[in-house]
Amino acid sequence: MKLASRVAQVPPSVTLAISAKAKAMKAEGLDVCSFSAGEPDFDTPVHVKEAAKKALDEGKTRYGPVAGEPKLREAIARKLQQDNQLNYEAQNVIVTNGGKYSLFNLILALIEPGDEVIIPAPYWLSYPEMVKLAGGTPVIVTTDASNGYKITPEQLKAATTPKTKLFVLNSPSNPTGCVYTPDEIRALAAMVVELDIWVVSDEIYEKILYDGATHLSIGAVSPESFARTIISNGFAKSYAMTGWRIGYAAGPIEIIKAMNTIQSHSTSNVCTFAQYGAIAAIEGSQEQVTQMVKAFDERRKYILEQIGSMPKLSCPTPEGAFYVFVNIGETGLSSVDFCSKLLEAHQVAVIPGAAFGADDCIRMSYATDMESIAKGLDRIRQFVETV
Ligand SMILES: *Cc1c(COP(=O)(O)O)cnc(C)c1O
């Protein structure tokens, strides 16, 4: 069979082998501790579920407008104005099938063969593959642990060529948990304006912050940066709604219209009654978000304390999301070998940094219960003491 060549350019995720193996081991009855989850271990807030059930009972079961329910687009625009000081109207917003599809749709709308897209590494593993699927060229800029894995304006400038169309910014970051300070965002915004390129700001973890860290959207820095910014966000991480598949993009009307055209021929509208749950998530109590962040923070502190006392391991202090990105360079193992051996010998699942463009690191998610975290860390300690 001859498949389209675009498929061959995109390797299957290297995380698949590890997570498939962890699942198989669990199915065999083995006691596997998993730090691999990319989703909150909490349930969706009750009032969100109630709103979706009510919408279902009221017959919100038909096709809706491609760009999303008007009420949800309005609620998102208000949220962006109030939380992020971004002056968008409902017409600047498109509701998409998860934050993942808002990014993919945007890249399809903006990128074509010959275009370069700057992606700081470590990166969320789908960014380069989305660019390749659109026929564009990902330009990976490696960042430094000593700088908290954050790209500097100078690095951004050095990577820019006449072909550069887009810069992908993700703060708080998956996989590193790093958060750009407002000053760092301002400096990057000035550079984006100077270089006159687009920036997509993936803000899916904006509410998951620790140690007093604050989130500044790059679009809020100046009218000039606003004009070059597209926001990608969603409900999955903040509201424990990963399975609901609701994300959104916000940006200049011309881009949102183009995304609407692509969406009209690909996914159509996001599940109608699920969108009513999203409205409740935005407009209802934020108490559960606060509680979830508090629980994450306790686990984060515990993990940092443990990792800090282990030989051969180190990591910068993450101030956002729910991951620690641990350097394993001193073990002498590649990230894939480290992960396979750890899983086989100690039944602990972590994700190899190779998946995120950093082969001397592993990603550990603490979106799991404290007991498994403590048990898993004990096993990791035993493992690193023997390698
Ligand atoms: C989880 C995640 C997303 C989007 O997830 P959806 O489930 O599609 O909303 C986007 N970016 C990053 C960095 C993520 O970790």
Structure overview:
With 387 residues, this protein is α/β, with parallel strands linked by helices. The chain folds into two domains: 5-44 and 287-384, Aspartate Aminotransferase, domain 1 (Alpha-Beta Complex), CATH 3.90.1150.10; 61-283, Aspartate Aminotransferase, domain 2 (3-Layer(aba) Sandwich), CATH 3.40.640. It has helices at residues 5-8, 15-27, 46-57, 70-84, 98-110, 126-133, 153-159, 182-195, 223-227, 253-264, 272-283, 287-308, 335-346, 370-386; strands at residues 33-34, 93-96, 116-121, 137-142, 164-170, 198-202, 229-234, 247-250, 323-327, 348-349, 351-352, 361-365. A seven-stranded mixed β-sheet has the order 2-8-7-6-5-3-4, sandwiched between helices. A three-stranded antiparallel β-sheet has the order 9-12-11. Helix 3 runs antiparallel to helix 11, helix 5 (98-110) packs across helix 10 and helix 7 packs parallel to helix 8 (182-195). The mean pLDDT is 96. It binds pyridoxal-5'-phosphate. Pyridoxal-5'-phosphate binds next to helix 5.
Amino- and carboxy-terminal Cα gap: 44 Å
Q: Mind telling me the CATH class of the largest domain?
A: Alpha Beta
Per DSSP E runs of 2 or more residues, the count of β-strands stands at 12
- What are the distinct ligands in this entry? pyridoxal-5'-phosphate
Determine the CATH topology of the largest domain: Aspartate Aminotransferase, domain 2
**Amount of beta strand:** 5-15%
How many domains, in number, for the residues?
2
Largest sheet: 7 strands, mixed
Query: Counting H and I runs of at least 4 residues, what is the number of helices?
Result: 14
CATH architecture of the largest domain: 3-Layer(aba) Sandwich
> Shape, please?
globular
